[in-house]
Amino acid sequence: MEINFILNGKGVKVKTHPLRRLLDVLREDFDLSGVKEGCGEGECGACAVLVDGELALSCITPVGSVEGTSVVTIEGYRETAKYRALEEAFSATGAVQCGFCTPGFIIAAESLLSKTPRPTPNEIREAISGNLCRCTGYSGIVEGIKRASERGEGLW
Ligand code: FES
Ligand code: FES
Questions:
Q1: Domain with CATH 1.10.150.120 in the chain
Q2: pLDDT band (50, 70, 90) for residue 126
Q3: In the chain, which segments carry CATH 3.10.20.30?
Q4: H helices within the chain, ranges in order?
Q5: Does 80-151 carry CATH code 1.10.150.120?
Q6: DSSP calls for 53-97
Q7: Which fold has domain 2-73?
């Protein structure tokens, strides 16, 4: 089956089984290796992408379900001023160690800030509750998202 969607701002088509995981299509067919596979079961957030602006876990998303939507991965999001604000903030608060989980946290942060530009620490914790980090602990990540929300004036 041919599936058409927008990927990081460009129209793409892929001929594949509609039940194939979006994660595999992104990594194998489009070389988008920023989308990580952690648990493969919808429980760690490493594979998060935005589908029509909403956070989606690509390991449990069949590619057929993104027909006609706009999908953004960390590679596309990296081109934005919002990404740069989050990157600066994560670096300032020590939110990144090995970096494996970071794309997922950045996508979760964007999903939160697009709806709640000035979140409380509790709202941030709630928004990242589906993301696992094995390295840093979460306080630097919560601080990083808070810092980006405060300094990213006009971005969200
Ligand atoms: S790899 Fe998708 S949620 Fe863990
Ligand atoms: S920085 Fe290593 S898993 Fe989060």
A1: 80-151
A2: very high
A3: 2-73
A4: 22-24, 74-77, 81-92, 102-115, 121-127, 139-151
A5: yes
A6: TEEEEGGG-BGGGGTTSEEE-HHHHTTSHHHHHHHHHHHHTT--S
A7: Ubiquitin-like (UB roll) (3.10.20)
Q: Is the CB of 99 under 6 A from ligand 2?
A: yes
Ligand with smallest separation from the Cα of 21: 1
For ligand 1, pick from 41, 55, 73, 134 the residue to mutate: most ligand atoms within 8 Å of CB.
41
pLDDT, average across residues 61-71: 98
Which whole number is the average pLDDT over 48-62? Answer: 97
Please tell me the number of the ligand nearest to residue 94's CA. 2
Tokens matching residue 152: 């990213």
